[in-house]
Design brief:
The structure holds two protein chains of two kinds. By secondary structure, chain A is an alpha/beta fold. Chain A is built from 21 helices and eleven strands. By secondary structure, chain B is an all-alpha fold. Chain B has a single domain, classed as MetI-like fold. Classes of the chains: A alpha/beta, B mainly alpha.
Chain lengths: ~450, ~300
């Protein structure tokens, strides 16, 4: 009897403990307070360091990036650049961790929830607004005394991807954009002289390419997500939201955006746009190499990939064919940002500054990462580079995706609308009206 | 034997580690999720999470995607549970009858059960590749000439269920076979002898002797498989990721997206409690109405 009572008591006690700990843990606090607490803590640390000069223990800072574990980028970073930095800063050790891109965001969120975020991350430019919004990032324009000098040195386009609600949270690390790859061998077989200058030139290729075979296509892409469709929308003169990012109605369902989707719909109905855009068929990069696709758009990272996978096939780059809006492509790339949870912000900033140096930028440029420091464009290295020229030219007009914390959701709405249109499930105008209304609701929330 | 003092404590000391693990990894997360589900939950430690009461639960029932994922989950469960039970029973009956190689066949059918979900999901994704190079398309079009052209298995909202469901059935048949096989071995042989004397044939014996005798096992397998069906996630996440256009989204993948894609952890937690309530209700109803005097 007694033992049973003891056991019951124990069980109740442990359950109570669990409940109490569960309820106590999140202890609602006011955000502003926490921020000041963090700042105070830092100040205290500074005081301690200056008042008692102790023998310096090397500080380890953790840097996450999404370079492939076995890639020229990672090798350059780990074997050349980090050792160079550590040699110049013997009191700092840099621990670099390659996190696969598709797991990056989730792994980062989990580590932040547990309070063990890395110090620095190489973030996809499109994650920065969201991370800034949840308070994960330190404001570089506030904590970096020499920020203005670094800000002035980089291209304004890539820099703009670090700005959220009036503050700058990071610096660009590398940039890229998608350009028009045209298949010289297929052009020769079809009797097409040169890459298309305009969107109409692309449509005009249809009959000639189809004459090569039923399974040949003028153009291919991997889906209807923003990264794929935005170059078409913008070149047609359309857009997905207003410049102030308050609404999509009147933009996403405006006449020029509608024309862009109608164009793609006609291409797929004519059999000139590969079904890979619906998620089937051969992927765009492979299809180009196998002479199935006469054109596709992609970034500079394809050159090293082609060198290793399709060494006998050449990529030929041209600018995105122009429409009413011009020849507009989409800006990609990565920013380097400092996490608010970092315990070693001073040391992390030293490495962040190092990533903006000529040495770092030019070394990474050798591995296919396009530099962001403006003055490097005039160096011999960049001028004589075999393929950066077209990308630099395209970057002059390229635009960035909407910097908004709800971007992931917006992109999904856009993807679904594109699928409904190209599958013929919804009329173009109706699909875009619906999507615009959905995005309006997202943008109104903030 | 009477135990005294410290001796009486000993059993509980042995129970303690398991209990602690259970409390840490099951009870605590469950309660924490319940708490999260009534907040507009902020991820970062130290940020204000606003108490929103039942708002997240209300959102569940007004969310059109929730209803479509519920439909998908039910459809997946019905198809895969039926498939696993029917094929599992057939396999069990055959293996039970097999005079030679019983262990071999048992192992063979059980093999998919012990494979990793991740690996076989990726394998099925490649088998059902939408292009000509997918093995299934290649067999159907180029070898057997059953179809004029390739099926976009993963790009067509209806066809995408084929790899997902066939994987669910293939992977689960071995488990239900194993349980059925154990039950079949418990059926007294005399019953079959009596049935034979009464002139019953094979089907008759199956229908009137075997199935009634393994009824508790059938119900057990049914309940477990339905619970499993509602928890389908890895295969869907890896094969279609809920696409195209969220048409193959199920409850768990929808829940996962709310948390890790859109950072709506409160809403995701509310979804998980709704899912738990659905599973508990269905399991309760199954046991209540199917048990009829037998212990499950």
């Amino acid at each position: 009897m007694k033992s049973r009572r003891f056991f019951a008591l124990f069980l109740v006690a442990s359950l109570l403990l669990t409940i109490v700990s569960a309820c106590v843990a999140p202890a609602p606090q006011v955000v502003e307070k926490v921020v000041t607490q963090v700042v105070e803590k830092e100040k205290q640390v500074e005081v301690v360091v200056t008042s008692t000069p102790m023998p310096k223990q090397p500080v380890t800072i953790v840097f996450w990036h999404a370079y492939n574990e076995v890639s020229p980028e990672n090798e350059m970073l780990v074997k050349t650049l980090i050792p160079a930095f550590e040699k110049a800063n013997p009191d700092i050790k840099v621990e670099s961790l390659a996190v696969p891109y598709d797991q990056f965001r989730q792994k980062l969120l989990t580590s932040m929830a547990g309070g063990v975020a890395p110090d620095l991350i190489r973030s996809d430019i499109i994650w920065v607004p969201e991370l800034a919004d949840i308070g994960a990032l330190a404001r570089l324009d506030e904590i970096m005394p020499d920020f203005e000098a670094y800000k002035a040195a980089v291209f304004p386009g890539p820099l703009s991807t670090n700005v959220y609600q009036g503050h700058t949270y990071g610096l660009p690390l590398d940039t890229n954009t998608r350009v028009w790859f045209w298949n010289k061998e297929m052009y020769a077989a079809a009797g097409i002289a040169e890459p298309p200058k305009t969107i109409d030139d692309v449509a005009a290729q249809c009959a000639k390419i189809k004459a090569l075979g039923e399974d040949k296509f003028v153009f291919a892409d991997g889906g209807t997500y923003a990264w794929a469709v935005l170059p078409w929308i913008w070149s047609f003169g359309g857009s997905i939201n207003d410049p102030d990012i308050t609404k999509a109605t009147g933009y996403l369902n405006g006449p020029d955006t509608v024309k862009a989707y109608e164009y793609l719909l006609k291409m797929i109905q004519d059999g000139c746009l590969s079904p890979s855009i619906l998620g089937g068929g051969v992927d765009a990069g492979t299809g180009y190499a196998q002479d199935i696709y006469a054109n596709y758009i992609d970034g500079p990272w394809m050159y090293p990939i082609y060198q290793s996978q399709f060494p006998n096939k050449q990529l030929h780059a041209a600018l995105m064919p122009a429409g009413k809006g011009g020849s507009i492509s989409v800006v990609g790339g990565e920013d380097i940002v400092l996490m608010q949870q970092s315990q070693h912000k001073e040391e992390a900033l030293k490495f962040l500054r190092f990533t903006q140096s000529d040495e770092y930028q030019l070394k990474m440029a050798e591995t296919g990462q396009m530099p962001v420091v403006a003055k490097l464009v005039d160096t011999d290295y960049m001028k004589n580079h075999p393929y950066y020229g077209t990308f630099l030219e395209q970057l002059k007009t390229a635009k960035a995706r909407t910097p908004h914390p709800a971007w992931t959701k917006m992109d999904e709405i856009l993807t679904n609308a594109g699928q409904a249109i190209l599958r013929g499930e919804k009329p173009v105008q109706k699909a875009l009206d619906d999507a615009a209304a959905e995005i309006d609701a997202l943008l109104a929330k903030k | 034997m009477r135990l005294h003092g410290f001796q009486r404590l000993i059993p509980y000391l042995f129970l303690l580690p398991g209990l602690l693990l259970f409390l840490t990894w099951m009870v605590y997360p469950l309660l924490r999720a319940l708490q999260i589900s009534v907040y507009d939950w902020k991820l970062l430690p130290g940020q204000v999470s606003q108490f929103v009461g039942l708002a997240n639960y209300r959102e569940v029932f007004t969310d059109p995607i929730f209803w479509s994922t519920l439909r998908n989950t039910l459809m997946y469960t019905v198809v895969t549970v039926t498939g696993q039970m029917a094929l599992g029973l057939v396999a069990a009956l055959l293996v039970h009858q097999a005079v030679r190689g019983r262990i071999f066949f048992r192992t063979l059918y059980y093999f998919p059960v012990i494979t990793s979900w991740v690996i076989v999901s990726l394998l099925f994704k490649y088998l059902f590749d939408s292009s000509r190079s997918g093995l299934i398309n290649y067999l159907l079009v180029a070898v057997l000439h059953l179809l004029p052209r390739e099926i976009g298995w993963l790009s067509d909202a209806r066809a995408a269920w084929a790899p997902i469901m066939s994987l669910g059935v293939w992977k689960g048949v071995g488990w239900s076979m194993m349980i059925f096989l154990a039950a079949l071995q418990m059926v007294p042989l005399e019953l079959y002898e009596v049935a034979s004397i009464d002139g019953a044939g094979g089907w008759r014996k199956l229908w009137n002797v075997t199935l009634p005798m393994i009824r508790p096992t059938l119900i057990f397998v049914l309940v477990m498989l339905v619970i499993g069906g509602f928890q389908a996630f890895i295969s869907i996440y890896l094969i279609t990721a809920g696409g195209p256009m969220q048409r193959t989204e199920v409850l768990l993948s929808h829940m996962y997206n709310q948390g890790f894609k859109y950072l709506k952890f409160g809403y995701g937690a509310a979804l998980s409690y709704v899912l738990a309530a659905i599973i508990a209700t269905i399991s309760f109803l199954q046991i209540k109405f199917l048990r009829r005097g037998v212990e499950v």
